[in-house]
Amino acid sequence: MKHLEQVLRIFVIITLCLSGLLLGMSQGDFQPLLIAVISAVAAWVLVDNLRWFSLPQWLANGLAIIVTVFTIASFLFTGDPVRQLLGVGKLLVYLQSILLFQRKSARLYWQILVLGLLQIVVGAVFNLGFEGGVLFILYVTCGGFTMLLLHLFQQREIAGTPGGTASRSRGLHAGRVVVSPMIESRSRTLRRMASHYAIMGLGALVFGFAWFYFLPREHSSWSGPVEVPMRPAGYQQSVSSNHSDLIPMSTQVVMTVQYARARDLDPVPLQPEEMPCLRGIALAGVVTEGNATTWQPAASQVLGADFHPLAGSRRWSGTLLVQKIVLEPTDNPLIYSLYPAVGIGGDEDENIEFCWPVGCLTRERSGDKIKVAHYRYELGVVTRRDGTAFEAWPYQSRTGRVPLTADADPGVYRWLTHLERNRYPDIVGVAGDIAARTGDNHARIARECEAWFSPANGFSYTVDFRSVRRDSSIDGVEDFFANHRTGHCVYYASALALMLRSQGIPSRVVVGYRGGQWNDFGKHIDVEARNAHAWVEAYIRPDDCPESWRASGEAGRLGAWMTLDATPAIDFDQLLTSNALNYAQSFWRDYVLGLQADQGATTISRDGFKLSGFLKMLDLGWWQANVTSAVGSVRQPGPLRNYLLVAVPIVLLGIAGGGWFWWRRQAVRKGTRRTRAAVPRGFALRSRFASLAAGISPALARWLAPNVAGAPPVVPFYQRMTKILERAGRKRLPGQTHLEFANQAGRLSGEGARSELAILTTRITRFYYLVRFGGCELDENQQILVEQSLDELERKLAGGNSAATTATDAGS
Amino acid sequence: MYERRKTRITWEGMSFLAILAFIVLGSILRQINLLVLLSGLMIAPFFFNWRICRKMLQSVVFRRRLPQWAHAGDDVQVEWEMENNRHSIPSWEVRVTDSINGNFAGEEVSRTAQVIIHQVGPGGRGRARYRCRFPHRGIAWFGPSVASSAFPVGLVRTRMRVTETARLVVAPATGTLSPRWHRLTSSSHEASDSADGRRRGSSSDEFFSLRAWQHGDNPRMVHWRSSAKRGELLVRQGVDPVSARFNILVDLAAHDDATAGERLLGMAATIISGSSGWQRHGARACMAVCGCDATPWPLVIGPAGTLTLLECLATVRPASNTGVLEMIARCRGKTSDRVIVLSNRAREQANADEAVPVTQVRAATHVQWIDVATDNSWFAPATPPDEFGSTIARPTASSS
């Protein structure tokens, strides 16, 4: 009982830590985890093991009430559901901690587990990434086993408690029940139970996932989290060149992107060098403070909110691709796209708005879904015929059909060319040299300035400034440009934009994402937080636009926004390989957290109940189409063919081997004596497997080799006798029969072979022969006799040992 | 024997269901996938618990084993055996709740005892035992009982009523007979002295017969050769009992001091329980109990009559007119003319209470009157136990 409770306590602690960790992960606040771990361990040591103190029930109830009132008061009236949920999560942890410091009973353990489960519920409402998903499954498994242990503990607790209606002082006292342990050891029983639990747990997982996929869903977007902590990289609406030492490169997935020739076609796989730049928002305003240059969006200050519905398809001289993007949950209304982007005429277009002056795509702000769901959208994007992105896209003016010049649109022009020249003397000076060398063509000046940031001029890329010697007395961008020339995309983009502005070329910094990892499982690009990027857009006058731009549609009548990226290529090659973790992350994101109604096995549509997903496999047509497609794929050389060439023989061999095992096993079960005798010889390998498997699951070992595994069979009472004799220093020698051993072991010094001990050991051994070799079962009387003999043997040997010890002491 | 299995949701299951309902509702209303998955993973143990715990009690047989009688104050060991007749699925953690009812010392008592049979493999048997102690004489009824299982996680419990009942005679507590009693009885079976030689031989290879081994027998008395031939344990039985030597009448008269009556019954129970000793010597005696619900005639103290006599001692109530004198008359020629009357009243009091004077029967039979109420030199009762469970025996259970 004590041993069981100790195991239960440990599992309760593990479960609590997992629930606290999940809650902390989901909320981005690990205070609950800290409290849960500290209180669980402290209670285990101080209350359960050392028994120094325990909270009386009245005090625990009082504390719980006080904590509840104070915690609820802190968040109840905020009106923010997110804060309320965070508060509920913390309250659960506090209550759990109070319970932990009480003297434990089965019911108290149950209450603790329930509070842990509620923490998981709160955590599941928030965002849980793939790592959280793994912990979630681990929690479910651990929690289930803890419930099993708790049930065993409760059984023993109840069985040890008398029941009935009689008074305690008089009458019958029949309720004091003594429950006997089994002859086989408890650890073995628990191990067997654990193996059975493993099978049940597996079944429960299958059941749970089947329920998950077959639950009918309506046609609406389902989601994982209610709210997620913001990811700063890529979503920032201002970037600064302050002196941060180290920028963390998070691999958290921000969005997934697919490109297809048409909406219904499969995605096009992209090579690393083809990864697109997904444009977010343009930052035109420069604010200088201290030694930092900060870029901010200019829309609100200069241009105001001037949103137009996304333009329909235009005549572009290029290839139209359908871009499908799934944004991780965020409350930021920005959406990202390769530019130029056009609508594709779907219903989703109505939810997307486009601000032409700053080139910012946003999604509809109304409705809760902006916070709670993965956001999926499709846009048409135009690339050149060779698949590369356009260099520019047409400029459109808010103030009328005028180009962006100092005369035609002075307000916007001044804003986009604003520069404190004396703050950036080197930048202005180098830009002036380049302009003097290149001429008056803005497009060429821009290209030359972009090219200036080459390794030949000493520029290099880094996100770690700890080893860079910097001058904090001057502006960070100027310091970067003039002195160390080491930095990341924000420095490059800032410096380039400032160079262009110094030459009267309107320019702005653009933030978004560049690159990503091709995910072969999901057939999409995983864009991670570390792919956040900044580059420059420069306004090119109509006269300076190359002819090719006009021909392809990149430049309009009023000019064009030219895309410039001065940042050197980042070596992400080692990161661009897809692996099993990517697959798992994709699966969790797309088929668990972000499972949509039409992805599940059953859906509820306007036409009624509809089966899809897995149930499609019941359709013969589906099989025919897929088999035809698969055969077609196999005929062509490729990775699938290679996989099949390896996998098919292995699977066939496995099936054949499994069939042979099954057939031999059936033979063992039904077979005659001859078959049985022949089995061990042929089953040497199998017996080894079985003995290996016995360490994991005895049931599996018995299934593998019913006659071989575990041989010789254990006869518990004989095992007990050998242990008793071993303790007394008597062990069976090799080659000695059991009966000889019994005679010898029972012989005390100075006594004959027929001593009392010898009678006992011989008697037990004879019963052992009956069971082990005669295949008999002892009846009740025989078992009692054996038990009595064992008790007597143990008593006598213990007495003999103590007598011997006393004699030794006396002699010494 | 067994009634239909019924499944109930436990207290833990109810709270689990409440949380589950909350999660399912929340997941559907808020359309949160992770909560749907969590609800699925919570439904699974509930469903499995229901199916498994119903399976645990399918194709199983329960048997209760307990002695036919016990003495008040003695520990009684009740054993439950469960036989699993399924072919593949073991039974885990089956709880048997036994009800114990009875009337003891004028008090209706109802208690429950619970045992857990941890694991019984397919086709195997498992056992669990509990002990109980009855401080007063009476009849204890065991059952009907309830077997239940909530394995593996205790959210759902399946119960099955086992209607089999058993009866335990709780005889009066035994004590110690004084040497004076032994002298009295030895004078009654002097003839058995000649059997001493045979008694001595009883520990050697000579014996009268073999009988099945019973719990409490000396293991050294097992006759291995015959046991091997018969396939069951047999022990050597002593010499053939010779004819009876005396009659004992227990006269339980209504008395102000109730303890005197209990002491009287205790002495009678001690005589019966110790009878095997002098029976082995070849002596035989008859006993009759006189009182309310008494025995109609003297019964031979021996294997056949012991249970009846102890049951009578367990249930007999004092009476003002016990009919002891009529019984003395009946004893004439039953075994021998010698009668020992154990009473809680004086001979004169009996003479006054009974319709027939004692003196009339004295002539016909040799009557020895022992007044236990006033004379403590014959019997010393054992100290009554304070509370059950002061000694918890080493638990023993097994499964095969």
In terms of topology, how is this protein built?
The complex is a heterodimer of chains A (812) and B (400).
Chain A: H1 2-27, H2 31-49, H3 57-75, H4 81-100, H5 106-125, H6 130-159, E1 163-164, H7 186-214, E2 217-218, E3 239-240, E4 253-260, E5 277-283, E6 285-289, E7 292-296, H8 299-303, E8 308-309, E9 319-327, E10 334-335, E11 341-342, E12 352-355, E13 360-363, H9 369-372, E14 375-383, E15 392-394, H10 410-416, H11 425-438, H12 442-452, E16 460-461, H13 476-484, E17 486-487, H14 489-502, E18 507-514, E19 517-519, E20 524-528, E21 532-540, H15 547-552, E22 560-564, H16 580-593, E23 602-605, E24 608-611, H17 620-635, H18 639-670, H19 673-682, H20 684-696, H21 698-704, H22 716-727, H23 738-745, H24 756-772, H25 780-811
Parallel strand pairs in A: 2-23, 16-17
Antiparallel strand pairs in A: 3-7, 4-9, 4-20, 5-18, 6-7, 8-12, 9-14, 10-13, 11-14, 12-13, 15-22, 18-21, 19-20, 21-22, 23-24
Chain B: E1 6-9, H1 11-30, H2 33-56, E2 60-65, E3 69-71, E4 75-84, E5 91-104, E6 107-120, E7 125-133, E8 138-142, E9 145-149, E10 156-162, E11 166-171, E12 175-177, H3 179-188, H4 196-202, E13 209-212, H5 224-230, E14 234-237, E15 246-251, H6 258-273, H7 275-280, E16 285-290, E17 299-300, H8 306-315, H9 324-330, E18 338-343, H10 347-353, H11 358-364, E19 366-371, E20 379-381
Parallel strand pairs in B: 3-11, 15-16, 15-18, 18-19
Antiparallel strand pairs in B: 1-10, 2-4, 4-7, 5-6, 5-8, 5-9, 8-11, 9-10, 12-20, 13-14, 16-17
Helix pairs in contact in B: 1-2, 6-8
Explain this structure.
The complex is a heterodimer of chains A (812) and B (400). With 812 residues, chain A is an alpha+beta fold. Chain A has 25 helices and 24 strands. In chain A, the strands form 6 sheets. Chain A has a 6-stranded antiparallel beta sheet, covered by helices on one side. In chain A, strands 5-18-21-22-15 form a 5-stranded antiparallel beta sheet, with helices on one face. Chain A has a 4-stranded antiparallel beta sheet with strand order 8-12-13-10, with no helix packed on it. The longest helix of chain A has 32 residues, at 639-670. The model of chain B is unreliable at 189-205, 239-244 and 385-400 (pLDDT under 50). Chain B has 400 residues and is of the alpha+beta class. Chain B contains 11 helices and 20 strands. In chain B, a hairpin with a 2-residue loop joins strand 5 (91-104) and strand 6 (107-120). Chain B is 30% helix and 31% strand. Chains A and B meet through helix 5, helix 6, strand 1, helix 7 and helix 25 of A and helix 1, helix 2, strand 5, strand 6 and strand 7 of B.
